[in-house]
Amino acid sequence: DSLLVAKAEVFVDIILEDVDDNPPVFMEETYASTLSEASVIGTSFVQVSATDADAGMNSIISYKLVENDSRHSDYFYIDGTDGIIWTARPLDYENIQQYNLLVRATDSGIPPQTSDITVTVDITDVNDNPPLFSQMLYDAKISELSICGHFVTCVKAFDANSSDVNKLEYSILSGNQHSNFVINSKTGVISISNLRRPILKPFYNLSISVSDGVFRSSAQVHIAVVGANLYRPVFNQNEYEVELAENSPLHTLVTEITATDEDSGTYGQITYHIVNDFAKDRFYTTETGQIFTLEKLDRENPNEKVITISLMAKDGGGKVAFCSINVILTDVNDNVPQFRATDYKVSVVSDVPRGTSVMKIMASDADEGTNADITYSIEADSESVEENLEIDRFSGVITTKESLIGLEDEIYTFFVKARDGGPPRKESAVSVFIKILPPEVPLPKFSEPFYTLAISEEIPIGTEIDVIRAESTQPLEYTLVKGNTAESNRDEFFVIDKQNG
């Protein structure tokens, strides 16, 4: 009741059940070990160990190797209980020098927790491979006049064991009864020894050995002694000159140049080679010294007017001789005359006297000789043109034949044809427009009908060449008409002052 207070005490035991809230923790941050490649299957070399702060089943840990792209785990296995790692396959240093294993520790909780760690395994090399020659048979030739120290050949061996590469030693086992040859024990170079006999046999068969200190391999060296190369090739001339028509088809025979060699056998056999790159791109030569075209050649190309071929004759012993062949391209009429302008326009007053020069038509031909000789003629549908105008067939100057009075405001339109000398003769035509004006119309008149100037190719830009003068009652403006060819200022190398000429 409210007047009496009663109480009692009791002890209560609270048992906490473990929850798997801790992952395994490895005892080391990393693990590393070293193994010999000679280790047998089942060799243990490292033990990984992890702890778990949980209790009961949550603290029981198992281990396994995790596979990765390198497949290194295939060479080992791990005891899932105690973490000891063993070899599962034979190891080979020559294939893999280091393994990186991923070990995973897993506790027994639900769900289980895991931790991973890398184990690095370095493999050490042992001498388990013999040295091997790069080839089992070496062939060499030497001259009967070879002196002491003359190089014969070089034998080479390799060893899969990297630690043995610098330990290789070469020696001659047999076939060197009179000590005519010696081998460098480190480099494998075979040369004529200081004990060389005055007369050598035609053939030697040496047995060569290489050793790494444990294993040994052998190879054969066949040495043929040949006659001496006493003479070099000789051309009849140092320089030759031949002509070749431009545009000749591919594989056209240009010439045949031969050299002689007084040696016999291999040393007297001569091969021919074009040595300069420019000629190599355009010609080729046979073993007999015949030279053929490799492409069509163009005389109008400045680089191909005269092509120099540097020809080398080489005998079987390596001795050489040289000569030069100048191939001169002869012209073929493969270019048409080309006018300096795309068309010609001029005005003339009607009261000019007969024989007055109206204008000059100019054309050029990239060919040479007769092929470049140009003659001019007028081609017109109107009889009036031929009655009143004529052209000098060689100079291209158009002059008046009759008085032009009464023809005011007429425009003569016709063609001038330029024809080369061929054969075959090639021609081209250009349009000409001549307007006839009344006498009272003022026309500018140049002080000279034609101007001829000569300048140096090294003249600085901006240099004044000449002054062109014209007379007129009206203000004048001078211009250079852009031509149709490089020679007629197509590329505008020259300019004229508009005001003063």
UniProtKB/TrEMBL annotation:
User: Does the record bear Acetylation in its keywords?
Assistant: no
SMART domains reported in the protein's UniProt record = CA
Q: Which GO terms describe its cellular component?
A: cell-cell junction; plasma membrane
Query: Which GO molecular function terms does the record list?
Result: calcium ion binding
Question: What single Pfam family name could you report for this chain, choosing any that match?
Answer: Cadherin
Give the Cadherin domain ranges. Answer: 27-133, 134-235, 236-339, 340-446
**Compartments, as annotated in UniProt:** Membrane
Keyword Repeat in record:
yes
Q: What protein is this chain from? A: FAT atypical cadherin 1
